[in-house]
Amino acid sequence: MANGINNKKDDDLQALLAAMAQKAPEHQAELGLTAQQVQQIQDASAAFEQAQQGAHAALCAYRAAIEAKDGARHAAIELTARLIAGWKPNPDVSDATLADVGVERDRKRRRAVPVHRPGEVLVTTGNTVNALSWSPNGNEYRTVYIIESRASEREEWRFIAATTRTKLAHTGQRPGATVWYRVYAQRAGRNSGPTVPSAAYGEQSLQTA
C-alpha cells in the first residue's frame, strides 16, 4: 500500500502476514502450529492491515486540512489587504481606530533635508600640501562635500575627494603651481551649486563655468 505513510518494509510485512493468515490453517499440522497460534497470526494480520488503513486515512485527512488552511489563508489575505487599502488613505479613519483593529498607517515621508551651497573655500598653501576649508553654510551633519580642482580655465573640473568634513588636505602638490578648487554639497541624491572657485597661488579671477 504505497500511500506516503507505509514503506516497502510495511508492504512486505503485510504481504507476509496475509499469506501466513490465509495458509497457516491449511498447513497447521505440518508447521506445528496450535489453534491459538493460528488465531494470533490472523489477528496480527488484521490489526496491521487496519492500522495501515488508518494511517492512510489520517494522511489524507491531514493533506485535506492543509489545503483547507491554505485556501482560508489566501482568502483572508485578499480580504484584509482590500479593506486596509481602503482604510489607510481615508482621512475619516483615525490612526487610533486603525490601531484598534491592528493596522498601522504608513508613516509620512520624512521632509527633504535642504542642501546648501557651502561657504567660501579657503586655501592655505604649504610644502606639497594645499589645505582647504569651508563652512557648512547650513548643511546638516553627515552632508557629503565633493571637492574638485583644475589648473586653468581651459581644463575640465576634476574630482579630488568626497568627505563629510569641512576641510581637506590636498597632498602631492607642487609649491607655486596654481590650482583652483571648488566644493559642492551632496545629500540624498541632491547636489547644491558649487562654490566660487578659490585658488592656490593664483589670482581670484577664474570663471565659475
Distance between the termini: 85 Å
Sheet-strand content, in percent, reads 15-25%
The DSSP helix count reads 4
Largest sheet at a glance? Answer: 5 strands, antiparallel
Q: What can you tell me about this protein's structure?
A:
With 209 residues, this protein is an alpha+beta fold. The chain has helices at 8-23, 28-31, 35-87, 95-100; strands spanning 122-125, 129-133, 144-150, 158-163, 167-171, 179-187, 190-191, 198-200. It contains four helices and eight strands, in the order ααααββββββββ. Strands 3, 4, 6, 7 and 8 form a five-stranded antiparallel beta sheet that branches. Strand 1 and strand 2 form a beta hairpin. The radius of gyration is 42 Å and the shape is elongated.
Concise account of the structure shown:
The protein is built from four helices and eight strands, in the order ααααββββββββ.
What is the topology?
Blueprint: H1 8-23, H2 28-31, H3 35-87, H4 95-100, E1 122-125, E2 129-133, E3 144-150, E4 158-163, E5 167-171, E6 179-187, E7 190-191, E8 198-200
Antiparallel strand pairs: 1-2, 2-5, 3-4, 3-6, 6-7, 6-8
Helix pairs in contact: 1-3
Characteristics:
single chain, 38% helix, alpha+beta, 209 residues, disordered C terminus, elongated, three-stranded antiparallel β-sheet, five-stranded antiparallel β-sheet
